[in-house]
Design brief:
Elements (H helix, E strand, L loop, with lengths): L4 H6 L23 E10 L4 E4 L6 E8 L1 E6 L2 E6 L2 E5 L5 E5 L6 E9 L17 E5 L3 H18 L6 H24 L5 H13 L6 H7 L4 H12 L3 H19 L4 H7 L5 H12 L3 H11 L1
Antiparallel strand pairs: 1-8, 2-7, 3-6, 3-8, 4-5, 4-7, 6-9
Helix pairs in contact: 2-3, 5-6, 8-9
Length: about 300
C-alpha cells in the first residue's frame, strides 16, 4: 500500500464544486456547456478531497508550485509544477497535497466541454478517466498561465459576456494542450528549422535573404536550404510564398483593401505577380476569391 493511502482514507472532504447524483440521475445528464466554477488555490500538507462518485462535470487542474497527487483505482499519480491533470465525469478519485514541507498551488476549473472540444481532450491517459500533460517549455507555461488568469477573471465577473469570455480562455488552454500533444506525436523539427519558421511567420512581409537566415542559425546557405527542404517539404522561398498567399486570402475575405494594396501588405513587389501566384495557388483570381467568399457569408 502506498504511504499516501493512509492520508486518503483519513478524512472525507467535499468542496462546493462537487456534483453528486441526485435521485439516481445518471452521469450522462451533464450540466450545460460552460465554466461551472474556477479559482486559484493553495494548500498545505493535509489538504485532501475524496470523491467516491466522481463529478458530473470535468475537472482541470494546472499545478503552479509544490506537489499534489491523485489516487485512482489504487494507484497514485503525482503532479508537479507545469503538470495539467484533467478528470472526466464519473471518475472516482481522491487528491491531496503530496509533500509535507511544500504548499500545493494550482489553478482549477470545473467545466462541461462544448462538443467541438472533445477531440482536443484526447490527451495521454495514465488511468481510466484521468488525462495529463506535462508542460516544460517556458513560453507555453507563460501562455497557459495568462489564459488561466483570464479564465478566472471572466468566470468570476459580472456581465452578459463574461461566460463567453471565460469559455474562450478555457478553449485556448485546451487548444494549446492539443497542439502540444500533436507536436509530441509527430517527428520533431530541428531547432534551427523551427527558428527559421518562426522568423518567416513573423517577418514574411519583409524581403527574405537566404544568407541572412543562414547566419541566424549558424549554417551555410546551402546547408540551411537542404535541411529546410528535407524537414519542411518545401523550399524556404516556397514557404514564404505560401505564407504570404494565405495571409492575402484572409485580407481578401475580411477587409476592403484592393488586390494591389493587399499585394503590398503581404510583401509582394508586383501586383501582377501576386495575382498570378494567387490564381496558381487557389485556382482563382483574387477578385474571384473575394466574390465567392462574400457569397458564402
Amino acid at each position: 500500500m502506498h504511504p499516501l493511502s493512509t492520508v486518503f482514507s483519513a478524512k472525507l472532504m467535499h468542496d462546493p464544486a462537487i456534483h453528486q447524483p441526485a435521485n439516481n440521475m445518471p452521469y450522462s445528464q451533464a450540466p450545460p456547456p460552460g465554466i461551472l466554477a474556477a479559482d486559484h488555490f493553495g494548500a498545505s500538507f493535509g489538504y485532501h478531497v475524496r470523491r467516491p462518485h466522481g463529478t458530473r462535470d470535468w475537472l482541470i487542474t494546472y499545478t503552479l508550485a509544490g506537489e499534489g497527487c491523485y489516487c485512482l483505482a489504487g494507484q497514485t499519480h503525482f503532479c508537479c509544477a507545469g503538470d495539467i491533470f484533467i478528470l472526466a465525469p464519473g471518475t472516482v478519485h481522491d487528491y491531496a497535497t503530496a509533500h509535507p514541507t511544500q504548499r500545493w498551488e494550482f489553478y482549477w476549473a470545473h467545466f462541461t466541454p462544448r462538443a467541438h472540444w472533445l477531440p482536443w481532450l484526447r490527451l495521454p491517459e495514465p488511468a481510466p478517466g484521468l488525462y495529463m500533460q506535462k508542460i516544460e517549455q517556458r513560453e507555453l507555461k507563460q501562455r497557459l498561465d495568462q489564459a488561466f488568469v483570464r479564465l478566472l477573471r471572466d468566470s468570476q465577473g459580472i456581465g452578459a459576456w463574461q461566460a463567453e469570455l471565460a469559455a474562450n480562455a478555457l478553449e485556448e488552454v485546451i487548444l494549446l494542450l492539443a497542439q502540444h500533444q500533436e507536436k509530441q506525436n509527430t517527428p520533431q523539427l530541428d531547432a534551427r528549422i523551427e527558428t527559421i519558421l518562426a522568423y518567416l511567420n513573423q517577418r514574411f512581409r519583409e524581403p527574405i535573404n537566404i544568407a541572412s537566415l543562414a547566419a541566424l542559425v549558424a549554417l551555410s546557405p546551402s546547408r540551411l536550404a537542404h535541411l529546410f527542404k528535407k524537414q519542411v517539404g518545401a523550399s524556404i522561398m516556397e514557404t514564404v510564398l505560401h505564407v504570404r498567399l494565405r495571409q492575402a486570402a484572409r485580407l481578401l475575405e475580411f477587409t476592403a483593401l484592393s488586390a494591389g494594396e493587399i499585394a503590398h501588405e503581404v510583401g509582394f513587389q508586383s501586383a501582377f505577380y501576386f495575382s498570378r501566384q494567387f490564381k496558381t495557388y487557389y485556382g482563382r483570381s483574387p477578385t474571384e476569391y473575394r466574390r465567392q467568399a462574400q457569397k458564402a457569408e
